[in-house]
Amino acid sequence: MSTPSEGAPTGVIHDIGYRPYAGPRLGEGAVAWALFVTGLRNSFGLGRSGRSKVLPMGLLALMLLPALILVGVLVQAKDLLGLDQQIVAYSTYPMTTQLLISVFVASQAPALISRDLRFRTITLYLARPARRATYVLVRMASLTAATFLLVAAPLVLMYVGGLLADLPLGRESQRVGGALVGALLLAACLACTAALVAALTIRRGLAVTAVIVLLLVTYTVVATIQGISADTGHARVGEVAGIFSPYTLVNGVQVYVFDAPHATRTPPTGDGMGVLYLLATAVTVLGSVGAMLLRYRKVQG
Amino acid sequence: MSAVSPTIVRIGAHSVFGRRRGILLFLLPLVLVGLAVLVRALVGEDLRSTEDTLYGLGLAVVVPLVALLATTGVLAPEIDDGSISYLLAKPISRHTIVASKLLVAWACVLVFGALPMLVAGLVLLLGQPEVGFAFAVGSLAGGLAYCSLFALLSVMTRHAVVIGLLYLLLWEGLLGGLLDGVRWLSVTRWAAAITEQVAGQVTLVDDLGFTYAVVATVVVVVLGGWLTGRRLQAFNLTGDE
Amino acid sequence: MGVSVEDRAGPGSGHGAPVIRTGALTKTYPRVTALDGLTVDIGGGVTGLVGANGAGKSTLIKILLGLIPATSGTAQVLGYDVARDGGRIRSLVGYMPEHDCLPADVSASDLTVHLGQMSGLPYPAARERAADVLRHVGLAEERYRPIGGYSTGMKQRAKLAQALVHDPRLVLLDEPTNGLDPSSRDDMLALVRRIGTDFGIAVLVTSHLLGELERISDHVVVLDSGRLLRASATTEFLHRTGTLLVEVQGKPDADRLLGQALLDAGVRATPADGRMVEVELRDDATHDLVRDLAVDLGLGLVRMQERHHRIEDVFREGGAGSVHPV
């Protein structure tokens, strides 16, 4: 049915007939899923230029490296060193590698969030059937999932290594389970706050700086306070301070809920403090989401 | 032709405080002083706590970040959107441009880095004001060196801010904590050595001579600034990302 | 789950039903009124929306898409109410914004496929449609390169492609020729015309350049300061308000003689520069009338030149803001 194309030079419209689309049109759920997957892939540089893969993939490798070494030592020298559990506890590992995680979140949040605002591509999304809130929530979910993968991958590696080293299955499964829940909470806290910062600053360089500053400064301040308060008998102060940095916050939650070994000087003690930590986690995540939704309501396309 | 152009200084000051960057610059010293107040309330006047606070948060985190924000704030936006080419087309020597912009950055380091350090130090240890003073001097030295470094970075790549942060986190932060040898090439540790010498009674870094630290700092400040000027002369605006 | 083909028909899809209908549509901001009681029906084919910057064109489009809420009044697109069925409307409508909206580090192909998916197309269909649409807008090998390296013309085409990828029933094109050189502008206008005629998609195209809209639109809607100045078929503009420039000679005062004769015959005629007569062109019979009168008066007919009024005359009559003739 189509007319033969004229031998037109490039840039001029070819004269093949226009075919309308009569196929299925998916609903908002499927569209949201497609956006989620794209965002998750983009966080690791997949589907983008080659250079954007370097940093996230590099960070992933750096996250796995120490775990690999630890597993190697565990498997090989277990009897020699008399090891009967993981050298570094599952719940402690993210705390140790927090700089890598912070850099990941700081660099990928702008890529996922600021970019659409900076180039005003957000208009093209808003002019499509999916709702504004869907876009915001799915973007944050993609970043959370990407961060979770980064934090959880070495934990899984350690778990598998532990099984290879004949550590008790039941105990290890329980511990890694708790740690994975912690990883999810940590990912949610980091991703949601970073996304909010990225949505407020828009310029990539500034967004990266702001997130790093936020995560680094909060941790340093909290660690300093905890150290001093522990040394001077004011443990309670240190415990409360712990809610102001996502790393110490989530570690505290794991200590309280899963009885994980503590990685801070002043972990939460008692139910009151434990509940405070849980509430603080919820506030961090939900508060960021709420603020994001408000911020995007102002975008007029 | 003067060594510093007042116009460029003024424009530089404007662009540093433009948009959200300015908020961070105010926030960092605020956090430092705030922590100092908190620690003082907790433990009274204690040398050890003072060292931890002023070194751990102040010298290692706040000062480098202030330097980074100030320097990139003065240079990066112009390079980012290409308006630097207007400046380069004027009959002003490249070194004058660099000197003027660095002056703004140094002023920021003084106001948002060294001065708050002094205040924090006095809050923490009013009885030994020389400690606060020493930390202020150390931060100034470290801050100046960082400014030159980051200025050079800004004219070499569009991703100056990210690379600067990575340098701070990974080299000065992570590796510096693990490997001792890093201290010979670490601006923060030079600043710490200078602080030690001036205060006389604090120990922050092992085995790093005062003379070496001073010389290293001066070299970085001068060399960095001069190289930045050189680089601007051969400046080429490349495409995008 | 999903929108079936039948649903796409919609309540207002019958022949002759307006594609866009507004009723006293108003949008006020604290210091300015962007739209002021706009009531207009827009049908199929290509409709040009003309007005100066700030006349309310982009505001109208954003309200129709549901990007901003109206202050008062109603609007329907393809029979669906803008306030209630925004999602439905956006699945049937394509939008090409005026401002830059393309990321620099993605290729046109990837972007179009992604946005096709965002419009509800399954991935394989999105890829096929994207390839088709990019070919139709004339992006060949460039489609695989990052958009950052495109010329303005290519960027506009990429923007148009993403508006068409999901086979919409209506496209809203906001200043599609912005920043294009004259030959690219002609290409784009021809493309817009094709979309309206060959592709069977209704088109609403805005511009502050009048000449181009004359060429490609079936209907023209003229806005000024948020109010409707004029809405009619382009042909009406051109014929009803056209004039004939007539030059006669052979006798002294030839022009006055002819002018008087025309007035007696009930045709409006006014003196024009250089001893010519400007005759109101009502229909094709006017030409014959002028010829016959000239012959009767024994005058020589030297010139009979059609001067079609252009859309800009609407503005002169209505005293509107500055619009630029091409």
UniProtKB/TrEMBL annotation, chain A:
Q: Does the keyword Transcription regulation apply?
A: no
Going by the entry's taxonomy, the superkingdom of the source organism is recorded as Bacteria
- Please indicate if the UniProt record lists Membrane as a keyword: yes
Transmembrane stretches, start-end: 54-75, 95-113, 134-159, 179-199, 206-228, 275-294
What are the alphabetically sorted keywords of the record?
A: Membrane, Transmembrane, Transmembrane helix
Per the database entry, which stretches of residues form a coiled coil? none
What name has this protein been given in UniProt? Answer: ABC transporter permease
From TrEMBL, chain B:
Q: Pfam families, from UniProt?
A: ABC2_membrane_2
The portions of this protein that span the membrane are 23-43, 55-76, 97-125, 131-153, 160-179, 209-227
Q: Which GO terms describe its cellular component?
A: plasma membrane
**What are the alphabetically sorted keywords of the record?**
Membrane, Transmembrane, Transmembrane helix
Which stretches are annotated as coiled coil?
Answer: none
Molecular function, one GO term: ABC-type transporter activity
Which PANTHER family did the record assign? INTEGRAL MEMBRANE PROTEIN-RELATED (PTHR37305), MEMBRANE PROTEIN (PTHR37305:SF1)
Record's protein name: ABC transporter permease
Organism encoding this protein? Nocardioides guangzhouensis
Automatic annotation (TrEMBL), chain C:
Q: Would the keyword Lyase be found if you checked this record's keyword annotation?
A: no
Fetch the PROSITE patterns from UniProt.
Answer: ABC_TRANSPORTER_2 (PS50893)
Q: Which residues form the signal peptide?
A: none
A Pfam entry, by short name: ABC_tran
Q: Which residues form the ABC transporter domain?
A: 20-250
Residues annotated as transmembrane = none
The superkingdom of the source organism is Bacteria
Q: Which CDD domains match?
A: ABC_DR_subfamily_A (cd03230)
Keywords, A to Z, come to: ATP-binding, Nucleotide-binding, Transport
Q: Does the keyword ATP-binding apply?
A: yes
Mind listing the GO molecular function terms for this protein?
A: ATP binding; ATP hydrolysis activity
PANTHER family from the xrefs?
Answer: ABC TRANSPORTER, ATP-BINDING PROTEIN
Give the family from UniProt. Answer: Belongs to the ABC transporter superfamily.
What is this protein called in UniProt?
ABC transporter ATP-binding protein
Name its species.
Nocardioides guangzhouensis
